Amino acid sequence: MDFSFTPVDDAFRAEARDWLRAHLVGAYAQVAGQGGPGSEHEASAARHRWERELGRAGWIGIGWDRAHGSYGNRAATLTQQVVWAEEYARAGAPGRVGHIGENLLAPTLLAHGTDEQRKRFLPAIARGEELWCQGYSEPGAGSDLAAVRTAAVRDGGGPYRVTGQKIWTSLAHEAHWCFLLARTGEGTRGKRGLSFLLVPMDQPGRIEVRPIRQMSGTSEFNEVFFDGALAEEDHRVGEEGDGWRVAMSLLALERGVSTLVQQIGFAAELDQVLRLALRTGAVERDPVLRDRLVRAWAELRTMRWNALRTLGGSGAGAASGAPSVAKLLWGGWHQRLGELAMRVRGPAAALGPHDWTPHRPYELDALQRLFLFSRADTVYGGSDEIQRDILAQRVLGLPREART
């Protein structure tokens, strides 16, 4: 596969690099690198302002299909999307607060939404003004998404009334809107009878958000309780009962260009672990550790080439099961990196960055958060067990496991 950058791409890279250098100053420079996975609580207000700064310059939604028009975003080829993602990560820019709306909902609306829905929602996302969360997982319906029980019923010709519970909802405490799967077909089971709805979060008394405190001490995930929350009929994406198809289309988008951004972050974390291993002399004392660090570097390079190959397949990767391969690769790799970080630290890994006192809360440093948060990497976004089942059945053609 030829995935080379052209002179036009190089000029685009220079423009992106210059813009980031000129704007990552002052207050934004102070929050550079903050707000990544496991640290979404950091500098929230500044990162919201940064989102609007990106929007004013047209850097949000540069990968959107422009067949339906422009929504204030720049046009960009696939390679230019990769260029922007790489330069953003390399600049150490703040973690994005609008990525769910930009990278998941927006392409879904471009593929399945109406013109009215695109005109209503895409410009606000492109300006960095409206933030979204994803309401898929439920207690008892995590990796088995077809087991969704949240219900949405209509009184005559009125709006849907959504009742149920979602869990592990990233950034729900900050989102203005939630796109969710709800069962609109009474008495239906499995994939049938589900609809894809857009629900405003500002409904006091009808929507309650409860943060879930993780062992890393942060709480970017939430439980969301819907008690008759309203969703307008014209805020349903696709036909009633066709939500499963829309939802699967969205999941296929979840592991696109953003995978390359993620890998640049991984490379920075690996570099931090390598520098620590060299500084402490751990690589000289422990040949097994040295071998594992080299293997981690080689595996990360393999993941990058796999991601580029998948992107170069013009969407064929999603149909072939390649996204499941990518998830299996990075989930386990990132967990092992966290374990390596603790092994390099040795006994000091059990200590916080500051002495504990009754007046200072317990804190973690970056590598400790990496270790603790990465415990979830093989679960969220599709557990490894489910991904292996998908590959076995849909790619290798193996029979389903017998159920008793």
What is the compact description of this entry?
Belongs to the acyl-CoA dehydrogenase family. The chain folds into three domains: 7-130, Butyryl-Coa Dehydrogenase, subunit A, domain 1; 133-241, Beta Barrel (Butyryl-CoA Dehydrogenase, subunit A, domain 2), CATH 2.40.110.10; 255-395, Butyryl-CoA Dehydrogenase, subunit A, domain 3 (Up-down Bundle). By secondary structure, it is an alpha+beta fold.
If you had to describe this structure to a student in words, what would you say it looks like?
This protein has 404 residues and is an alpha+beta fold. It folds into 3 domains: 7-130, Orthogonal Bundle (Butyryl-Coa Dehydrogenase, subunit A, domain 1), CATH 1.10.540.10; 133-241, Butyryl-CoA Dehydrogenase, subunit A, domain 2 (Beta Barrel); 255-395, Up-down Bundle (Butyryl-CoA Dehydrogenase, subunit A, domain 3). It contains 14 helices and 8 strands. It has helices at 7-23, 27-30, 44-56, 78-90, 99-112, 115-126, 243-253, 257-280, 282-285, 287-311, 316-320, 322-345, 366-373, 384-395; strands at residues 132-135, 151-154, 160-166, 177-183, 194-200, 207-211, 222-231, 236-237. A hairpin with a 5-residue loop joins strand 2 (151-154) and strand 3 (160-166). Mean pLDDT is 86; it is low at 314-323. Residues 241-396 form the Acyl-CoA dehydrogenase/oxidase C-terminal domain. Belongs to the acyl-CoA dehydrogenase family.
